[in-house]
Amino acid sequence: MADSDEAGAISRRALEYPYATPDRSYLFLDGEARELPAAGPGLAGRTPLLSYGANAAPAALARKLASLPGQGLPVLRAELEGFDVVYSAHVSPYGAVPATLMESPGTTAPVFVLHPTPEQQALLTATEPNYDLVEVPLCLGMGDRRATRRVQAYRSKHGALELNGRPVALAAVRSRGRTLPELDERSVLELARLHLGIGDDVPSFVRHCVAAGGVAPLPPISAI
């Protein structure tokens, strides 16, 4: 039973990517999404960090920041113009095909802007072996205000996963003006499984990837 429970947990973690996020800005504290202070979040000494995937989800932050109890993390909802959120060309160490950013004129992606302390950012960066931390000027909308801001972001070292020669957007991320094809996590894992010829089904493919520490890079995929 224990082995079965563990296998189920591994599959769920991969298949539930990019995980549930609140529909508002929030303060992450001790594993929970809480209301921001009425006076506004204190951002002094914190560097803005764009999140377009798991890093804005309380469940993911609870795993990544567990060793820093009592440290709040302001997580501010925003919109990113001119980009979409697509699958990266790799399988993560926990078995998901995760996200990266792709330029997409006319598209607006829902994102969050984290404001970590240096200690929090160090922990977040340690969980991103397949990403480079870069600083880029991005057009972000926060409330009614839109401006180009310099923010940090994790971008995949492996680029975007291609399906029939085109990047594939995350169906779970509801971008406006999307022009790319989209798939959910289970579908993209199944395509990767069939293309690589590993495992009898998605759960067994995920377990193989976890045992291998991930797969990087994933080759371009042709529809089967």
Protein architecture, described:
It is built from five helices and eleven strands. The mean pLDDT is 95. The protein has a five-stranded mixed β-barrel. A two-stranded antiparallel sheet has the order 8-9. A two-stranded parallel ribbon has the order 10-11. Helix content is 23%, strand content 33%. It has 224 residues and is of the alpha+beta class. Helix 1 (2-15) crosses helix 5 (202-211). The N and C termini lie far apart (35 Å). A hairpin with a 2-residue loop joins strand 6 (131-142) and strand 7 (145-156).
Average pLDDT number: 95
- Rough outline: globular
The proportion of residues forming helix, as a percent range, comes to 10-25%
Summarize the helix and strand pattern as letters.
Answer: HEEEHEEHEEEEEEHH
Low-pLDDT sequence parts = none
Main sheet record: 5 strands, mixed, barrel
Number of strands: 11
Terminal-residue CA separation: 35 Å
Summarize the structure in short.
The protein has 224 residues and is an alpha+beta fold.
Q: What descriptors fit this protein?
A:
alpha+beta; two-stranded antiparallel sheet; 5 helices; 5-stranded mixed beta barrel; 224 residues; 33% strand; globular; single chain
Question: What topology emerges from the helices and strands here?
Answer:
Layout: H1 2-15, E1 26-29, E2 32-34, E3 49-51, H2 58-64, E4 73-87, E5 99-114, H3 118-126, E6 131-142, E7 145-156, E8 162-163, E9 166-167, E10 169-170, E11 182-183, H4 185-196, H5 202-211
Parallel strand pairs: 3-7, 10-11
Antiparallel strand pairs: 1-2, 1-4, 3-5, 4-5, 4-6, 6-7, 8-9
